[in-house]
Amino acid sequence: MSMCGAWSPVKPVTLEVIKICLEMRKPIEDRVVNGNDSKVYIPSVYSYQILNGTNYVVKVFLGGRDDGVCVHAKIHQALPCNDGKLTLSRFQFPKTFDEPLEPF
């Protein structure tokens, strides 16, 4: 676990992060593919930061397009006392599959 405010090392997604990404699929696709569903939507790696809830940055592969285009999404999960609501804070698109995920 990382210290409060520091970003964790980038690592493969966990089941918990996959569930978060699936819940945020529609908002991400609405912003990066103009509301069209991606044929493939695969979260691969992530980093997190504990700060007034949890911030996640996640690399998501969007298949069925060009050659390995990805989105880097920043997702905020509010504290449980605030219902743990998920919001898409920011995103970087397009990203290549080989571009490293860096917190932003």
Automatic annotation (TrEMBL):
Keywords: Protease inhibitor, Thiol protease inhibitor. GO terms for cellular component: cytosol. InterPro entries: Cystatin_sf, Prot_inh_stefin. GO terms for molecular function: cysteine-type endopeptidase inhibitor activity. The keyword Nucleus does not apply. Belongs to the cystatin family. PANTHER family: CYSTATIN 14A, TANDEM DUPLICATE 1-RELATED, CYSTATIN FAMILY MEMBER. This is Cystatin-B-like.
